[in-house]
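User: Can you predict the 3D structure for this chain?
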Amino acid sequence: MPKVIYYVATSLDSYIATPDGGVEWLSAFESAGEDYGYAAFYASVDAVLLGSRTYRQCLTFGEWPYPGKACWVFSRQQIEIDQPKVTLTAQSPLEMIAELRARGLRRAWLVGGGELAASFRAHGLITEYIVSIIPVILGAGVPLFASPGPKENLKLADSKSYPNGVTQLRYVRITDADTNV
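Assistant: Here is the predicted structure, written as structure tokens:
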């Protein structure tokens, strides 16, 4: 089965964007010398999965942030897609996994947002979480997950702290077959 990795930055109070979807609060933590493992992670994925609001936000960045990757934008509404290798889809998360498998794609980055992540999580389809906790409290915004979901047992696979206060945690999902809970 293809792996789905939710690689995301969140504020300390678990918001991935401001109430209007903005991510400008992250810019204070961007520097030329540190990418928090992004380049290696991006090279490791075959596909990118985005919600429609995240897609629209990405269009405001100027340059398309996901070049060279097959991308799917999830929406029940018709929206204009003008980026190469980007497909609009209304598929369910389970149907998307079947399509990824049929195309031979092994690792997909679930970019977000919170609603899309919650729908994949509700089906138990997120196999790995890479969460960068940014030392900011936003007070309100787009939550890490849009709605509560089922309990998941996770195992900390890696952690890294950066001098600027960012902490990155990598968790893998533990299945019932795993005995190391």
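Helices lie at 38-44, 52-59, 93-102, 114-122. The chain has a mean pLDDT of 92.
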